[in-house]
Amino acid sequence: xxxxxxxxxxxxxxxxxxxxxxxxxxxxxxxxxxxxxxxxxxxxxxxxxxxxxxxxxxxxxxxxxxxxxxxxxxxxxxxxxxxxxxxxxxxxxxxxxxxxxxxxxxxxxxxxxxxxxxxxxxxxxxxxxxxxxxxxxxxxxxxxxxxxxxxxxxxxxxxxxxxxxxxxxxxxxxxxxxxxxxxxxxxxxxxxxxxxxxxxxxxxxxxxxxxxxxxxxxxxxxxxxxxxxxxxxxxxxxxxxxxxxxxxxxxxxxxxxxxxxxxxxxxxxxxxxxxxxxxxxxxxxxxxxxxxxxxxxxxxxxxxxxxxxxxxxxxxxxxxxxx
Length: 323
What we know:
Blueprint: H1 2-11, E1 18-23, H2 31-42, E2 49-56, H3 61-69, E3 74-78, H4 84-94, E4 99-103, H5 114-120, E5 126-132, H6 138-150, E6 166-169, H7 185-191, E7 196-202, H8 215-234, H9 238-265, H10 275-303
Parallel strand pairs: 1-2, 1-4, 2-3, 5-7
Antiparallel strand pairs: 4-6, 5-6
Helix pairs in contact: 9-10
């Protein structure tokens, strides 16, 4: 009986140790050569690795079909473009391993640096790569520095949020509400209580050429910074923001109204002056803004009573208190 059990256990299939998720976007390299490069870079890990490509229907179908026919990758096809967050969620959901490596469909870092990132995950929940950009184009470095400084609004301490090379444990996404702010995943994860490490890695030569972006991408990144900054500071207390703005506007309106009343007492006519209308408008606007914040507080209190924006790393004590 024991020998039969040992045979069954020994015959049980062993799943992959690392899942590599690659979301296909607008900027895409040669997928067949890219897969070979990533495989060679990860070979020193001596792990069983699965590759998952998430792509919209019809996008790069020929190249991915050739790889899938060889049984080298798993393809997740979406009916249309749903954004990077949807691609990431579906790729992670279908990943078989607990350790997940996120890679872009083009080279951003030297592939030989990938094993070091994965091994660093033993001491962290999320490891992000930061490119050493000494040889990068001047325009790229200037744009990266500007983005890094503006991103401080969100509380970010990371040097290269534009680098999409990250290694994480599966449980990270369970605590994070991720919309389209893929670049701010390290910031949101650290805010939720996960341990996030940043590792400097060499930049790939293919990534050092000047890259131009349209105005839409700049506007989108700016809006993402503002939205993440708001979520980080006021997600659980929106009335502090809207209430402060409302009180400020109301006080300005009241002070202006007092000044107008004093002027009227001294015989100054107000019938042909728009200042009185402006004072009333400020008071009403301030009350409305404050009411929006109060309504948001009520919604959070009644609709989301059991949610938390933190996590418990461990409980030290007797066994019955462990979770």
